[in-house]
Design goal:
Aminopeptidase, globular
């Protein structure tokens, strides 16, 4: 008879947990080891859970706690992330067991997920809306082809006209918060990005050395420079307003000067030919609540999700 337990990660030995993460997930070391930051432990008393079978970690259901605003009321919510069942225990009902326990943690659950995860969520009456798209702008399409690729690993960025570089510090964050607060007043529903949220996400971020804050006219852009599959990528993880063609053109000049292959961002504005562009992808925004009013608002009015809000910034 197998001994089966489901526990919070705070109840698990840290070394044992990190060993499991290294084996199960492909995160950069800074993100992998700083799971206190990754899962925002201590906020809203929500934390990931693990499946223990015969004293071994065999499954994991991660989460990122957040606050969302719905009709001027603040609610607790959690992002679903980092779900894993050991291959030896798949198709035996353990995924179902872990999912059902995870759904008890918080009354409002949201995720940006792939089709495989979506099939599971639909069994639990989650709603899915394809209202967001990951957009990609290439500096040079030839860089997609390995034989033409000449990657530049330098983090020493050169700036261009019409683009201002700002230090990542409390003063800069305060200016961004002021603009963000103004934007959120106009929204019926959305992620509540307040001072504590920005501090956690940026000031405490384990890879903040790779975060660059840019300003184009009155628009703030928080960016993350990363290297993946031999591509030099600039993720626009937060923008204080929509990325217009004129802003894109300035960013492309910046990319060209610094030999950055592409920049990517999440948008709720879809074009006719978006799906024909390499790297662009519709995102499944799925959510669940027993409260019909919450579901209706998430479906109709939840229109601003960016890389910075979930774990997408460091997993895709």
């Amino acid at each position: 008879m197998k001994k089966i337990h489901i526990k919070k990660i705070s109840e698990i030995n840290k070394e044992k947990l990190v060993k499991f993460y290294k084996k199960s997930f492909q995160f950069e070391n800074g993100v992998l080891e700083n799971f206190n930051w990754r899962y925002r432990l201590g906020f809203n008393e929500c934390e990931p859970i693990v499946l223990i079978i015969d004293d071994q970690i065999c499954g994991h259901a991660g989460l990122i706690p957040t606050n969302i605003k719905i009709n001027e009321t603040v609610h607790n919510a959690i992002w679903f992330t980092d779900f894993f069942i050991n291959t030896d225990y798949r198709s035996e009902g353990y995924g179902k067991l872990l999912t059902e326990e995870w759904m008890k943690i918080c009354p409002i659950q949201i995720t940006l997920c792939n089709e495989e995860s979506l099939r599971i969520f639909r069994k639990y009456n989650w709603i899915n809306k394809k209202k967001f798209i990951r957009k990609v702008k290439f500096n040079n399409y030839l860089n997609i082809i390995p034989i033409f690729r000449n990657i530049n690993y330098s983090n020493d960025l050169k700036y261009v006209d019409s683009l201002q570089y700002l230090e990542l510090n409390n003063s800069t964050i305060s200016k961004i918060i002021e603009v963000n607060d103004h934007n959120q007043v106009q929204q019926t529903s959305g992620i509540l990005r307040d001072e504590s949220w920005f501090k956690w996400r940026l000031i405490d971020c384990p890879y903040k050395k790779d975060i660059y804050i840019l300003k184009i006219r009155d628009q703030y852009l928080i960016t993350h420079l990363r290297f993946k599959k031999n591509l030099k990528i600039l993720n626009i993880i937060y923008s204080s307003s929509n990325i217009t063609p004129s802003v894109s053109n300035i960013l492309l000049k910046f990319l060209k000067r610094n030999k950055i292959d592409l920049f990517a961002f999440i948008s709720n504005q879809k074009g006719v030919f978006d799906n024909l562009i390499p790297g662009q992808k519709n995102l499944n925004f799925a959510f669940y609540s027993k409260d019909t009013n919450v579901l209706n608002n998430l479906s109709r009015n939840f229109n601003d999700i960016q890389y910075i809000d979930s774990d997408l910034d460091y997993i895709i």
